[in-house]
Write a structure and sequence with these properties.
Structural class: alpha+beta
Radius of gyration: 17 Å
CATH architecture: Sandwich
Largest sheet: 9 strands, antiparallel
Number of helices: 5
Order of helices and strands: HEEEEEEHHEEEHH
Shape: globular
Number of domains: 1
Strand content: 25-35%
CATH class: Mainly Beta
Distance between the termini: 14 Å
C-alpha cells in the first residue's frame, strides 16, 4: 500500500500543486561523545489539500540500537541549526508504540500520517494552548499540520533517530533537516538532494509503484 501511495503522489505531482516533496541526508546530530555513526536518508511527500504526509527513511551503521525517532518542529528558531539542549516539540513520533519502527542499527521504515497523528505538545505549541489541554479541534490540528509543512521547507523541522545505551546518543544520533525537491516526479533531482543516498532504492520503488498503478 505504501508503494502504491508513493506512485500515486509522484504520478500526480505534475497536475496538482498540492503535492510537495521534501528530502534530506541523515548525518550526526551532535559531535559527541559518544560520536554518532551511520548514514541514511529520509523523505516526506505531503498533500497539502488532504493534509496527509507519507514518510520514508532508511539508515545503516548506527552506534547502537534505536530508542526513539521523531520529526521535531518549532517556529521562530534559527533555520537549519539543531537546538543546543532539548529537542524541539515532537510533531510526529515515528517510533510510537505499535508503529513497527525497527530498533536495529540498520533498517528502513515507511508510513502514512494525517492530522490525527500529530503530537499533543506540538499542537499545543502551534495553537498557544495551555499544557493541560489534551483534546483538540479539527481546526487546531489543521493549523498545526499546515505550520509543519512550512517548517519542513524552511529549516525549522528535522527528523532524527535516537540511540540507546552507554554507546548511544539518547538526545539524537543521526538527523536531517529537509529540502524541498523542486520536481517530485524527478528521481534525478532526488539523487542530487540526497547526495546519492537512497537513489537506487527510490528508483526501484518508483518502478514498482508504477506497476502497482497499472
Amino acid at each position: 500500500m505504501a508503494l502504491a501511495t508513493v506512485g500515486l503522489l509522484m504520478g500526480s505531482s505534475n497536475c496538482s500543486a498540492s503535492i510537495i516533496q521534501f528530502a534530506g541526508e541523515l548525518k550526526p546530530q551532535i559531535a559527541g561523545p559518544p560520536v554518532p555513526t551511520g548514514t541514511g536518508y529520509s523523505m516526506a511527500i505531503v498533500d497539502t489539500v488532504a493534509r496527509t504526509l507519507y514518510f520514508e527513511t532508511q539508515w545503516s551503521g548506527l552506534n547502537s540500537t534505536v530508542s526513539a525517532s521523531h520529526i521535531h518542529a518549532q517556529g521562530g528558531v534559527t533555520p537549519y541549526t539543531y537546538p543546543v539542549g532539548p529537542n524541539w516539540a515532537v510533531a510526529l513520533n515515528m517510533a510510537a508504540s505499535g508503529s513497527g519502527f525497527p530498533t536495529t542499527a540498520s533498517g528502513s521504515f515507511s508510513k502514512n500520517y494525517s492530522i490525527t497523528d500529530l503530537g499533543a505538545a506540538y499542537i499545543r505549541q502551534e495553537n498557544g494552548l495551555a499544557p493541560a489541554v489534551t483534546s483538540f479541534t479539527t481546526a487546531q490540528r489543521e493549523l498545526a499540520f499546515d505550520n509543519l509543512v512550512t517548517y519542513l521547507g524552511s529549516g525549522m523541522a528535522y527528523f532524527n533517530i535516537h540511540t540507546s545505551g552507554t554507546g548511544g546518543n539518547g538526545g539524537g544520533s543521526l538527523a536531517n533537516f529537509f529540502q524541498v525537491v523542486p520536481e517530485p516526479n524527478s528521481v534525478a533531482i532526488m539523487a542530487v538532494v540526497l547526495g546519492g543516498l537512497g537513489f537506487r532504492t527510490l528508483r526501484n520503488k518508483r518502478r514498482v509503484a508504477t506497476s502497482v498503478q497499472a
